[in-house]
Amino acid sequence: MVLVLGGISLIASAGVGYVYKITEEPIALAAEANTRAALAEVLPPFDSTQASQLVLDEIPVVVHTAITSDGQVVGYAVETATRKGFSGEFRLMVGFLPDGKVQRVRVLQHAETPGLGSKMTEDGNPLETSVVGRNPSEMNLAVTKDGGEVDALTAATITSRAYVDAVARAFNAIMTGTPAAIKTGDEPIDTSTGASSQNAGKEAENE
Amino acid sequence: MNKLQIVLSGIVRNNPTFVLMLGMCPTLGTTTSAINGAGMGAATMAVLILSNAVISLVKNIIPSKVRIPAYIVIIAAFVTVVELCMRAYLPDLYRTLGVFIPLIVVNCIILGRAEGFAAKNGVLASALDGVGIGLGFTLSLTVIGAVREAFGSGSVFGQIFISGDGMLIFVLAPGAFLVLGYLMVLFNKLTAKMKS
User: Fold this and answer.
1) A80 in Cβ contact with A105 (< 8 Å)
2) What is this structure's pTM?
């Protein structure tokens, strides 16, 4: 009895181990391809990236610095996360230009309600258009319900607040992780990428 | 029972969702869209065929006292294999189904068929039972997903035919129960008609 169960467990674990071995590489490749696709979407054209990891509020954040072949920094992409989502943690990739303006935001992984919070993954949703083309330090980064300038998703205020939380964390990550370029703000902006300017000249101080 | 009958019985007479009423948790949880339902059904079917075949193969050497733990070990191994393969080769589908894939281990359809069919029948018949029940489960989940997606998001398999918000309740949890209930009525009506 013990022998049979032990034998079955042994064979099963050997089989699982074998499959793990052969899928290990494709899984790593798939994860890498996913990151690379997200980087290409949220950043202006670049040649290589340098990743640095840091932890903000106990949440791991990865800052990818995008560099062209002549050594110029063209942007920063931050893998950020929030635990304030309606259905737990979700992860975003936020692309910043060297002057700190948001280039694009992409949702990497989420479990928000389909049809409500999940709208944050769609192109041109109010959350993304509210922050794209603007520097988070020069705007009131909060949803309109909380007196900020970010238009929330209809019927998904919790998701919207969490989204803002993640974007703010991304911005803080480049402020602490890669200070020089952002703070001075005199790095050239790559205009060829057509970063849309949603900024209607509104100015408000962040709290 | 011939081989075709075994497969067909899993789709209609022993349909796991509408007749046996097994595996309700993934049925209600993953069918927010047609493609999610189909993906969940396909993953379950793969595990079901493999576990049914292997359990039928080793049924004579397993003492009946430890048969349930032995079945669970076999099923869990196959679920892990399917999960690893999905992560490697279908990462997008894996991201949407997420936690429901490991939960196939405790899907009662699989243990139910192991105990109720594979433990009493030959390897080929058991594998075919896995195909039939798996197809029945996949088709049911796809239909539920398609209906919920159509009413809730105005699209089927991601093809939008009405733009706008849709009736969100169908995508949320209550919609799963509503659609399941009405489809069950429809299914029973149709099968009753076929019998008479």
Assistant:
1) no
2) 0.74
